[in-house]
Design a protein that fits this description.
- With 204 residues, this protein is an all-alpha fold.
- It contains twelve helices and no strands.
- The termini are far apart.
- Keywords: Metal-binding, Zinc.
- It comes from Pelagibacterium lentulum.
- GO terms for molecular function: DNA-3-methyladenine glycosylase activity; metal ion binding.
- Pfam families: Adenine_glyco (PF03352).
Length: 204
């Protein structure tokens, strides 16, 4: 009996089933839910200096530790919570990143008060077509770490008091939340992600 051929995926999606599931079902598909956006932004910050697979394997622990990334709840975390999190072996125990997450939750509440939602604010920074490559091969995409829109988003977030939001982190966030479709041309998810982006109603 012949085996079903494995679908073609982006080169970074390794043989790890967790990585494949994340790639196939999440990465590159547009998101408008504030809790999910906040989680993705926080986890991209925690990933800085580490592999994304490390973060992905700890994601359920992160969710438990950070109250499901409920923005208001995380914003209310205090020094006791910081000490609790520093003692949690299930997450990345980095004081700076933990404190940053709490700070960023407070800054996110300010954005929601101003724009109505985090999504309405974030989607304002969607890259224009001229910022996107013509060639969606792995050789091209692996060289793209930032785009002008991710630099602008990074600067604006920092101006608002956010931390761990450099241009590279912001671009990885844009990729993860579907603000750009960086599935390679031959990836079996590219057309689906493009279709999802085409019908997605950008938050006003």
């Amino acid at each position: 009996m012949s085996q079903t051929a494995e679908p073609i995926r982006c080169n970074w999606a390794s043989a790890d089933p967790l990585y494949q599931s994340y790639h196939d079902d999440e990465w590159g598909y547009p998101v408008s839910n504030d809790t999910r956006l906040f989680e993705k932004l926080c986890l991209e910050g925690f990933q800085s200096g580490l592999s994304w697979l490390t973060i992905l394997k700890k994601r359920e622990n992160f969710r438990a530790a950070f109250a499901g990334f409920d923005i208001a709840k995380v914003a209310a975390f205090d020094e006791a919570d910081i000490e609790r999190l520093l003692g949690d072996a299930g997450i990345v125990r980095h004081r700076g990143k933990i404190v940053s997450t709490i700070n960023n939750a407070n800054r996110t509440l300010e954005i929601i008060a101003e724009f109505g939602s985090l999504a309405a604010y974030i989607w304002r920074f969607e890259p224009t077509p001229d910022q996107r490559p013509d060639d969606y091969s792995w050789e091209t995409l692996r060289k793209i770490a930032i785009v002008p829109a991710s630099v602008t988003l990074s600067k604006d977030l920092k101006k608002r008091g956010f931390s761990f939001v450099g241009p590279t982190t912001c671009y990885a966030f844009m990729q993860a939340m579907g603000m750009v479709n960086d599935h390679i041309e031959t990836c079996h998810c590219r057309a689906r992600a493009e279709a999802e982006r085409a019908k997605f109603a950008r938050p006003a």
